[in-house]
């Protein structure tokens, strides 16, 4: 376990995850203008929607820091460890969110925790298909794409979001939580069922022997 | 230099080009130039598209930086200089940037026969902006793990383009060059300070990257110095500016006709020059009839758009007659209400169509202006106009109760 923790450096992600929650709570009004597709008007995307991407990127970085050859023949299963440590990251954010909400009452902190979970899940799933580098780009495009295609500002100035633009929904909206929970379950299953290179090699060797 | 095919196979630029082209095509339709028949404006409109192109260049360059570092580890210390190495792998990214720039210029191409061509100074700023984003992306790709470098340069590059226009102080938008998106009406040209500031900023970023590549690790902190120095110079350059990156276009560019008042036509309006002279005579005659004259001390009559019609000419004559008041202590709401009423009355007096007036004057103010225009005799209207000008020149700072009474007396209600 010690070698695993030393190689993966999950502590950095935990620290950043906590900082993201605190920063989002304090800078709740900060926004980034995202041009909405086919309307020519910018949508003010809250930084609290964008900042959790940093945690998801770091999580991908953590998971790529292993030595594939050694992990392939390891007795223990690094993907299960990764999943457990991702749980620690999210748990640390929940604790930070509870403390921050007592200090700065706003729903932003809850939103940050939800979006972090969602972005990590998207990163894990996309990484299985195209690798971690493009997965991190895809994670970044989730909030920007939702703002560009799934947000509208009514004539009265109210903001409305498409049902699928879950990162933009309020922390109390259940649709977004269902989305994230679904993504989380699929991503966890994907991590736990992933065949390791060692397993692949062993099956090939068995084929050769037979 | 490595074979072209080898570099292209490893680069992300060929894959990024269609993605960037789609983004440009989608967003170009939403962000038209201020005046689509004025080359300066058509060129500057590409600024908004650069907030997609620059991150794409930075991402591709970060990938190239990672590849060159990986190659060094595999092959050993290279013989060529770090700058040469960068140029060897990053040229497809440069081509990506130039292709995207060319596409954005092509999409905003003014109609045939429009005098002039793409504004070279703005194109130069764009090229420098893309080069700086590419160079910084490459360095970050060499320094950080690629899993982090790629998304970080993508979001950093995007935020650098998208955030400053919405932030205070306003010089931020001029430093990064994104303020140029509001350039320019036909009677405006880019302010040299708004062009020099991004040149200094991005030029210094390039110098910093070169310094970073050439200096020993212990001395690399020195590479940041040019960026800091030029940043200070650039801020001082644009600090006096407001949010517009423009200045008045030199009247030497226009052809002026000897008339009362002097009438000036920009080269882009030559197609309708004869019509404009006829169209401008009519509102001036109406002013005469109302007892007003175009003050000789005012600037020559000129028009800020290429798409002119009689109504637009009348509205411009009315706008020229609006007094320009300097209010050092600020203004009150009375000032704004009065300004709207006066503007409404001037528009009606010179004969602007109902649709034209309604598009620029608030409904309440227009109702009051219309009441004056339709129910008062010309001499009374003139007295009303002069008293309203007094309110404006006092910046609306009369006693509020008095001001309200005055407005009630001066502005008769329409008979319902």
Characterization of this structure:
The complex is a heterodimer of chains A (210) and B (416). Helix content of chain A is 69%, strand content 8%. By secondary structure, chain A is mainly alpha-helical. Chain A has one domain. Chain A has a two-stranded antiparallel sheet. The relative contact order of chain A is 0.14. Chain B is mainly alpha-helical and 416 residues long. Chain B has three domains: 244 residues, no CATH class; 72 residues, no CATH class; 95 residues, no CATH class. Chain B is 62% helix and 3% strand. In chain B, the strands form two sheets. In chain B, strands 1-2 form a two-stranded antiparallel sheet. In chain B, strands 3-4 form a two-stranded antiparallel sheet. The chains are: A mainly alpha (210), B mainly alpha (416). Chains A and B meet through strand 1, helix 4 and helix 8 of A and helix 4 and helix 7 of B.
> What portion of residues of chain A belong to β-strands?
5-15%
SSE topology string of chain B: HHHHHHHHEHHEEEHHHHHHH
Biggest sheet: strand arrangement of chain B? 1-2
State mean pLDDT of chain B (0 to 100 scale): 86
Taken from the alpha-carbon principal axes, the silhouette of chain A is globular
Radius of gyration of chain B: 28 Å
Number of strands of chain B: 4
Unreliably modeled segments of chain A = none
Main sheet summary of chain A: 2 strands, antiparallel
The shape of chain B is elongated
Structural class of chain B: mainly alpha
Number of helices of chain A: 10
Ends apart, CA distance between termini of chain B: 84 Å
Task: Please report the number of helical segments of chain B.
Answer: 17
Largest interface: A-B, 25 and 24 residues
Q: What distance lies between the first and last C-alpha atoms of chain A, to the nearest angstrom?
A: 36 Å
Query: What structural class should be given to the helix and strand makeup of chain A?
Result: mainly alpha
The low-pLDDT segments of chain B are 409-416
Instruction: Give the strand order of the largest sheet of chain A, numbering strands 1, 2, ... along the chain.
Output: 1-2
């Amino acid at each position: 376990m010690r070698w695993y923790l030393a190689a993966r450096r999950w502590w950095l992600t935990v620290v950043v995850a906590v900082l993201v929650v605190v920063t989002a709570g304090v800078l709740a009004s900060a926004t980034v203008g995202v041009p909405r597709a086919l309307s020519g008007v910018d949508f003010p995307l809250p930084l609290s929607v964008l900042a959790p991407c940093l945690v998801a990127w770091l999580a991908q970085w953590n998971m790529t820091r292993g030595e594939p050859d050694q992990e392939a023949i390891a007795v223990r299963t690094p993907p299960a460890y990764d999943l457990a440590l991702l749980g620690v990251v999210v748990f640390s954010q929940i604790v930070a969110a509870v403390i921050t909400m007592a200090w700065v009452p706003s729903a932003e902190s809850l939103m940050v925790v939800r979006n972090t979970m969602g972005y990590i899940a998207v990163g894990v799933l996309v990484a299985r298909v195209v690798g971690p580098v493009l997965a991190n780009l895809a994670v970044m495009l989730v909030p920007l794409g939702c703002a560009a295609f799934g947000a509208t500002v009514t004539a009265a100035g109210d903001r409305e979001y498409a049902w699928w633009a879950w990162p933009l929904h309020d922390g109390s909206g259940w649709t977004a939580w269902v989305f994230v929970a679904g993504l989380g379950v699929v991503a966890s299953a994907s991590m736990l069922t992933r065949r390791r290179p060692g397993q692949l090699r062993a099956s090939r060797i068995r084929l050769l022997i037979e | 230099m490595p074979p072209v095919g080898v570099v292209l196979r490893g680069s992300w630029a060929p894959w990024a080009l269609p993605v960037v082209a789609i983004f440009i095509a989608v967003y170009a339709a939403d962000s038209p130039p201020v005046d689509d028949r004025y080359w300066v404006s058509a060129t500057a409109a590409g600024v908004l598209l650069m907030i997609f192109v620059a991150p794409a260049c930075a991402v591709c360059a970060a990938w190239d930086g990672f590849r060159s570092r990986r190659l060094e580890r595999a092959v050993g210390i290279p013989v060529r200089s770090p700058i040469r190495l960068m140029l060897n792998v990053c040229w497809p990214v440069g081509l990506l940037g130039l292709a995207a720039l060319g596409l954005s210029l092509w999409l905003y191409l003014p109609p045939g026969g429009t005098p002039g061509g793409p504004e070279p100074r703005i194109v130069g700023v764009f090229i420098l902006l893309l080069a700086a984003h590419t160079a910084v992306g490459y360095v970050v790709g060499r320094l950080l793990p690629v899993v982090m470098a790629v998304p970080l340069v993508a979001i950093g590059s995007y935020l650098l383009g998208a955030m400053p226009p919405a932030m205070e102080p306003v010089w931020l938008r001029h430093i990064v060059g994104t303020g140029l998106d509001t350039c320019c009406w036909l009677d405006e040209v880019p302010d040299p300070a708004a062009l020099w500031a991004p040149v200094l900023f991005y030029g210094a970023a390039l110098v910093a990257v070169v310094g970073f590549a050439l200096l020993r690790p212990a001395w690399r902190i020195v590479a940041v110095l040019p960026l800091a120095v030029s940043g200070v110079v650039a801020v001082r350059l644009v600090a006096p500016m407001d949010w517009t990156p423009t200045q008045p276009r030199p009247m030497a560019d226009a052809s002026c006709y000897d008339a009362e008042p002097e009438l000036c036509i920009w080269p882009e309006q030559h197609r309708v020059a004869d019509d404009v002279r006829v169209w401008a005579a009519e509102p001036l005659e109406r002013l005469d009839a109302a007892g007003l004259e175009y003050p000789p001390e005012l600037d020559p009559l000129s028009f800020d758009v290429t798409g002119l019609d009689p109504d637009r000419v009348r509205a411009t004559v009315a706008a020229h007659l609006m007094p320009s008041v300097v209010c050092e202590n600020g203004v009150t709401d009375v000032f704004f209400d009065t300004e709207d009423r006066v503007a409404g009355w001037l528009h009606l007096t010179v004969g602007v169509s109902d649709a034209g007036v309604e598009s620029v004057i608030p409904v309440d103010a227009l109702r009051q202006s219309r009441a004056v225009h339709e129910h008062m005799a010309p001499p009374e209207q003139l007295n009303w106009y002069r008293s309203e000008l007094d309110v404006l020149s006092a910046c609306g700072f009369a006693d509020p109760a008095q001001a309200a009474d005055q407005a009630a007396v001066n502005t008769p209600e329409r008979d319902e």
